[in-house]
Fold this sequence. Notes:
By secondary structure, the protein is α/β, with parallel strands linked by helices. The chain folds into two domains: 2-158 and 192-218, Rossmann fold (3-Layer(aba) Sandwich); 162-190 and 223-257 and 275-296, UDP-galactose 4-epimerase, domain 1. Helix content is 35%, strand content 19%. It has helices spanning 12-22, 53-61, 76-86, 127-146, 167-176, 195-204, 226-237, 263-269, 276-290; strands at residues 2-6, 26-31, 44-47, 67-70, 95-99, 150-155, 157-159, 180-184, 189-190, 192-194, 214-218, 224-225, 242-246. The protein has a seven-stranded parallel sheet, sandwiched between helices. Strands 7-10 form a two-stranded parallel sheet. α3 links the parallel β4 (67-70) and β5 (95-99). The longest helix has 20 residues, at 127-146. The chain starts with a strand and ends in a 7-residue tail after the last helix.
Amino acid sequence: MKVLVIGGTRFIGYFLVQALLKQRHKVSVLNRGARKGIFGDRVEEIICDRDDKAKFVSEVKKRQFDIAFDNWAFYPEHIKADIEALGGGAKQLKQLIFTSTTAVYDEKQSLPYAENYARHGKNAFGTYGYNKAKCEETLMASYKSEGFPATILRPTYVYGPRDYSGRMEQLFRRIEKGEAIRIPKSNPKSQFAYVQDVVSALTACIGNKKAIGNSYNICGEEIISYGELVEMLGEITGKKPKASFSLIHDFPYEDWNMYCEVSKSRKELGIKYTPLKEGLKETWEWWQENNLSVSQI
Length: 297
């Protein structure tokens, strides 16, 4: 198939492109061009700032795609541009798969969050979750009114090799160096999504009729407190963490309980989630072997 990946050179997109190439799809990657040539001549690179709507729509409309992945839409305007560029006419897209987030859920609802819960983004993530929820609303409105073929994936905190957010890597390094880690006093519980599991979910949506007009939580199944996470990281590094609980903290993850129901993604997408400790171990080994700073990714 001819596949477009919007945002595909750093973390989730990087591994997604690798998986699509392995599956022998013809891949085009659209981004601003800050990391040209990392896939060589195996992909078509479309250099474009997606915030320039006119150019974005023009560049995408020049081509025909069967499948599109948008890993880089943060505002409803981005989704509107996707629909304008990819929908309708003889070049009708088979499916747009949008990477959203579990940060869309309203924190006042009971845990675990399920896919049909209210999505207002009223939580510790502020405008990020709110805007992602608006992206989802825009996409689903087009699906319901015009039949635009959309699928939504909602990962929780994504970790793994090449994670440019540096969140999990920061915790690993601080434990390795014997630095103090202050955990929120509430000691929130969460789930974490291994990047390879997110990619497996994204590619499992391709041609999956059940996924059209549907949304899925993508989260490792283990629910773990931040304190337990730090202890696990210590076991992996072989060093005892200097951790404490504090109202004033510097923990790289939000002070919010965030865990979700994932049976739908297991059943309809066939996802088998990587055990957390296994994924974390692979992540730490990658950081050690590559010795890169976040800015170098």
